[in-house]
Amino acid sequence: MLRNVTQQLLIEDDERTARLLQLDLLFLLSGYAPAGPQAAPRGLAELISAQCGRFPALDPHLSYEFLIDVNCEEYRRSGDIRVFSAGRDAALERDFYLGHHLSEPWAKSAAYGLRSLVLPAAAARPAAVLDDVVEHLAEFTRYMARYRKLSQEAFNRFRPYHMGHPGGPRGASGAFMPSVHLLELALLPPSEGYGIFLDQSMSYFPSWSRPVIARWRGDSIRGANVSQRLRDGRLVLDRAGRERLVRVIDKFVDFRMAHLGVTRHALPEAFRERTGLTRRDIREQGGEHDILDGRDPGTSGFSVRHVLTNAVYRLLALRADLTRPGSAPADQ
Known about the structure:
Blueprint: H1 2-11, H2 15-30, H3 42-54, H4 64-78, H5 88-116, H6 126-145, H7 152-158, H8 178-187, H9 192-201, H10 210-221, H11 226-231, H12 239-266, H13 279-283, H14 304-323
């Protein structure tokens, strides 16, 4: 079979076809993941490397972009989707991928809405923008909540094929959905801990998003984010506008808490310590925890508990700052 694929590689120059062929090769490679990186045929790894040589933008491992975006785009075009499961579990796995793919535009729209408030030509009606962002985040969270119906057993039948291995690339994880990170960067500047996550994740985000995340991150550090613009008076909101912004933060926290709950249900072994996971607990945890501590890694290879609780903590800290009397100027 690999010899036949080699002949196909030699005659295909179309980028779309190359992406689909790479998707198939990466699914074949990931089929060996539970047995370890040495189990895959050498010829398969050589084919993947050859494809990357011909098309440098292709990922050499099963990434979020290939697993979710390339895979689901082809499903929407042709009805064909790649899964590792069989029978009813195959449909559940398909829906898991589609849920990520179909939900992200809501997060992306929310991110660009917030971004419009901090650009030089800022939106003329910030209240309307914030109302739209609230609705986009509510819809995004509804998608996430549906994953509660996915059983641990079904999830753990296909998750092993998404995993990385020590010394190899990180796994194909929802942590690398880019629009969630664009949303946070538009809202507040990256903390030191979040910066570590972004540094180590950049090559795992979808290729289109890497320069966007880098640019938004730099802009956010320099003050082009909603919280800093409000603090320095360059974004002025009346009382109703500030209440709308707090609702945006609350909806973002709702998403983060739903994600935390779904992950806790799917990966109970990563949450052996069952306390410290409520909003109050996280708000009072006193700072961000080390995402590189090596315990209880998620599919991404980071500490899944700390990645998720840190994200909630940053938002709750921002909410507390914004709701403190006299925290920022307002147009009364």
